[in-house]
Inverse folding.
């Protein structure tokens, strides 16, 4: 209970006293000066109840019974997904994207508001890509073409030569994917995906696709040099020197040649993505970009 009263002078501030009621709800204030007063009764879980009166000299003022109302509980519930959960849903959509229904197209985001991936999600996407059955099949085709053309002749021919070419091609694929799309993007906080533009003039879309071979979105949403992809291509080229036939190794030259080829291949792939692949990809989210 809180009792407040005005002082004797108009310039005096309110003075107050507080007491606790007994188990029976009764309370009392002693040595209260005559005059008007304001009383506030509070209790946990109930609405505060005000009362007022005027105490005359020599009077014992009895406050009429007061009934406290139960306080109205205001509960605000906000339902929504965390950024991680939104990103996880978008990644799951991307993992369903397949060109012609079977070729993986995981590293393209068609979402109008893509959320940055966590390191765990970047590694999971790289793993999903490298162990996809279609990836094994495409590597086999590449190894077969190399054998037909007698590329890396030091591997020889026959089943043994084909196996070595297959192993080297798959090693290139795995190292390039993990280094350029998981390890470096996690360390440098960059997003390894291509973000489909789909709107604007043809010229702007061409420039956008080409630029995305050397720039990327950071996890902060800003565009920045694509160090992850560039360094990833160079690193994969350097690693390949460890298992290519000795006569096909070219040290630094092979490394930078492979890096340049990687950038060019990325630019070409981006152009195809921007203008053709979406039409051939199944399970693309239905979120067409706004018309120019």
């Amino acid at each position: 209970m809180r009792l407040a009263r005005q002082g004797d002078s108009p310039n005096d501030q309110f003075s107050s006293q507080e007491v606790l009621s007994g188990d029976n709800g009764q309370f009392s204030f002693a040595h209260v000066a005559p005059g008007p007063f304001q009383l506030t009764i509070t209790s946990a879980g109930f609405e505060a109840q005000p009362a007022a009166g005027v105490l005359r000299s020599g009077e014992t003022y009895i406050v009429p019974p007061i009934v406290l109302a139960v306080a109205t509980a205001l509960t605000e519930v906000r339902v929504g997904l965390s950024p991680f959960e939104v990103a996880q849903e978008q990644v799951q959509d991307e993992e369903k994207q397949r060109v012609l229904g079977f070729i993986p197209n995981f590293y393209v985001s068609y979402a109008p508001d893509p959320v940055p991936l966590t390191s765990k999600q970047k590694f999971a996407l790289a793993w999903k890509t490298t162990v996809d059955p279609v990836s094994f099949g495409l590597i086999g085709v590449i190894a077969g073409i190399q054998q037909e053309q007698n590329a890396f002749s030091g591997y020889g021919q026959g089943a043994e030569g084909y196996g070595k070419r297959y192993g080297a091609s798959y090693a290139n694929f795995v190292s390039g994917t993990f280094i350029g799309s998981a390890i470096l993007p996690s360390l440098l906080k960059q997003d390894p995906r291509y973000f489909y533009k789909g709107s604007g003039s043809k010229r702007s879309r061409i420039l956008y696709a080409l630029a995305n071979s050397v720039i990327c979105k950071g996890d902060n949403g800003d565009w920045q040099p694509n160090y992850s992809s560039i360094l990833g291509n160079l690193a994969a080229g350097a690693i390949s020197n460890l298992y290519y036939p000795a006569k096909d190794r070219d040290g630094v030259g092979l490394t930078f040649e492979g890096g340049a080829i990687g950038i060019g291949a990325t630019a070409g792939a981006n152009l195809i993505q921007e203008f053709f692949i979406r039409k051939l990809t199944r399970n693309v989210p239905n979120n067409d970009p706004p018309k120019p």
Remarks:
- Helices lie at 83-94, 119-130, 133-148, 158-188, 202-211, 227-240, 251-280.
- Residues 83-282 form one domain.
